[in-house]
């Protein structure tokens, strides 16, 4: 495998690449500083990946923040950039456009499947990721893109985003409810990121998965959301 990492935090990105370089050859990883809310930066990053590795097979749209105070930015990062990253991935990978097919995985949250008190905008963006991904997955199947699109919805994961709950500049009017959110975290449990990676690999390797919503929780592990109604699929053109 060859992996490209994108992050607006250059220091964190370089540290991630260095950690991978200790286990694998340095040329197998590439770090590109990128703010996913800047369309030209994201477009340029995709181009650099193709130029460096020669092809694109997997896209994981994982950038996310929890900021109820600057909610416009939360929408830009959590939803708009996921949509843009998906369309860029399809542009390079879909078979009708000269690509060889591939997999796109968009990271949502359990907050995309249920209400999240004191995090309404975060919750809205994660609902949006699920709706967009499930819809574009149906389109990809109808149009024979050769690209599978799926969503992962983790519960609470031990990453720096959890620290945002303690910051007024992130929580804004909901800052006084931080202890309630911490109680929720304790109730549901906090997972190690490794189980999310396990779910990611499952989606990459299982060619039958398209339009699926994988849930990962501390209590039930990896499982899938079940929907009572199958989406209407128009006849292929």
Automatic annotation (TrEMBL):
<comment type="similarity">
    <text>Belongs to the short-chain dehydrogenases/reductases (SDR) family.</text>
</comment>
<dbReference type="InterPro" id="IPR002347">
    <property type="entry name" value="SDR_fam"/>
</dbReference>
<dbReference type="GO" id="GO:0047034">
    <property type="term" value="F:15-hydroxyicosatetraenoate dehydrogenase activity"/>
</dbReference>
<keyword id="KW-0443">Lipid metabolism</keyword>
<keyword id="KW-0644">Prostaglandin metabolism</keyword>
<keyword id="KW-0560">Oxidoreductase</keyword>
<dbReference type="GO" id="GO:0005737">
    <property type="term" value="C:cytoplasm"/>
</dbReference>
<dbReference type="InterPro" id="IPR036291">
    <property type="entry name" value="NAD(P)-bd_dom_sf"/>
</dbReference>
<dbReference type="Pfam" id="PF00106">
    <property type="entry name" value="adh_short"/>
</dbReference>
<comment type="function">
    <text>Catalyzes the NAD-dependent dehydrogenation (oxidation) of a broad array of hydroxylated polyunsaturated fatty acids (mainly eicosanoids and docosanoids, including prostaglandins, lipoxins and resolvins), yielding their corresponding keto (oxo) metabolites. Decreases the levels of the pro-proliferative prostaglandins such as prostaglandin E2 (whose activity is increased in cancer because of an increase in the expression of cyclooxygenase 2) and generates oxo-fatty acid products that can profoundly influence cell function by abrogating pro-inflammatory cytokine expression.</text>
</comment>
<protein>
    <recommendedName>
        <fullName>15-hydroxyprostaglandin dehydrogenase [NAD(+)]</fullName>
        <ecNumber>1.1.1.141</ecNumber>
        <ecNumber>1.1.1.232</ecNumber>
    </recommendedName>
</protein>
<dbReference type="InterPro" id="IPR020904">
    <property type="entry name" value="Sc_DH/Rdtase_CS"/>
</dbReference>
<keyword id="KW-0276">Fatty acid metabolism</keyword>
<dbReference type="GO" id="GO:0006693">
    <property type="term" value="P:prostaglandin metabolic process"/>
</dbReference>
<dbReference type="GO" id="GO:0016404">
    <property type="term" value="F:15-hydroxyprostaglandin dehydrogenase (NAD+) activity"/>
</dbReference>
